[in-house]
Amino acid sequence: MALAAVLVVLTGVAAGGYLASTAAGSRQDTVTLRVSLFGDFGYQDLYKKFEATHPGIEIKEDIQSYPDHHANLAKHLAVNSGADDIEAVEVGFIAQFKSQPSKFYDLKKMGAGKLAKQWLDWKWKQSLSPNGAQIGLGTDVGSLAICYRRDIFKRAGLPTSRAAVSKLWPTWDKFIATGKRFQKHAPKGVRFFDSGSNVFNAIIAQLNPAYYSSGGKVIVGANAKVKQAWNLTMQGVLGHESAGLAAFSTDWNTGYKKGTFATVTCPAWMMGYIQGQAPNTKGKWDIASVPGGGGNWGGSFLTVPKQGSHQKEAYALAKFLTSPASEAFIFKQTGNLPSQPALYKSTAITGFKNPFFNNAPVGKIFTDSAKKLKPQVTGPHQGDIQTAVSNAIQRVEQGKQSPAKSWKQFLKDVKNVA
After folding, report:
1. Which of 2, 248, 339, 406 is deepest in the core (most CB within 10 A)?
2. Confidence grade of residue 123 (pLDDT, cut at 50, 70, 90)
């Protein structure tokens, strides 16, 4: 069945109960559902499909930056006012919010429990609160690869085919070594990677445990592998391999357009971001394997805060947006990899090639990476720790502190937030 047809069928099924109640006259007024996101999730076409089969509902989207979105959601929950009907929560913050289950509707009581097997088991459990309430429905997973500029690699004397490039860095040590080789012949003003924090976070994503022990204790300072990741990242930074750009900053976005870096840690959703920031670079990018294999950066959940007055409609929309058909549709639009394992067997996903990235077989690349994922133990201050370490790395990149002093301040910052 064609994807569009699947969407129509599933939308119609989801619509059934609501249409019946509307026809019976139980709701005459227009219901406005507000959806709060960080960045563009690619939902616009899906909103239209939902509205078409749900007369009387209109959807409004609110988009904020990643840190502002989560900080504002925390404030809204604290004062019991201001949250949207649906609030997206990124995996780095889901532990923080699921520790407050009383602030969200338990989606299992709305029928989500019957859908649990629709998701990767660990994805379902990530948004399951300590008291057993399910506060969110999974959107995507951020299985990892490395996006690289073929044209810049060629100018630096490196191989350009994705198979040959993947062989350059089976490990992160080899990745940094490749960067050293790159910089010897790099075009003027071009660095090997965009940001030390993005490299560091990718290495951390492959560790388990990383910041938290299985018992929920913060172990940042005691985990030797975290320090090893820091030391390796600092090796690249001090070797002038990093462009020193803060992720999602204006300078970072400009870097994509001007080609000031040759590689970027590339979770599946990054494909859509690159295409949006630098549409004129089509064909210049390609995608190679991530060092170390597997790993996850990102992935989100749609939650329904209790502050909302349209919880049934909000749940119906969240359920639709995270359905297998919707997630398959989004993958082809933005590159966000579904968290629905059944889709990893679908040729519509595994056979998909992205022309922007030199026709890279992105469906196979990212589903293969997703199959290697091992869920990481996270805690309520995961996002805060990530922010603290990104700031620490940037201090070194900007020449404000030495690696040793910045590491010590990072550990102090962790104690303050966790």
Report:
1. 339
2. very high
3-state secondary structure of 296: strand
Calpha distance 393→397 (Å, rounded) = 6
What are the residues facing 104 on neighbouring strands?
Answer: 305
- Distance (Å, whole) CA 72 – CA 139: 21
Continuous segment of H or E residues that includes residue 144 = strand 144-149
Q: Tens of pLDDT along 88-103?
A: 999 989 999 999 999 9
Average pLDDT over residues 318-323: 98
- Alpha-carbon span 47 to 45, nearest angstrom: 5
Q: Is 323 helix (H, G, I), strand (E, B) or coil?
A: coil
Tell me, which fold does domain 143-297+358-417 have in CATH? D-Maltodextrin-Binding Protein; domain 2 (3.40.190)
Fold entry, domain 2-141+298-350? D-Maltodextrin-Binding Protein; domain 2 (3.40.190)
Each residue's pLDDT tens digit, 223-262: 999 999 999 999 999 999 999 999 989 999 999 999 999 9
What is this structure's pTM?
Answer: 0.85
Q: Is 416 exposed, middle or buried (0-12, 13-18, 19+ CB in 10 A)?
A: exposed
Query: Which residues are within 8 A (CB) of 132 and not within 5 positions of it... i.e. 6 or more apart?
Result: 108
* DSSP states of 107-143: GGGGTGGGGGGGS-HHHHHHTB-TTS-B-EEE-EE-B
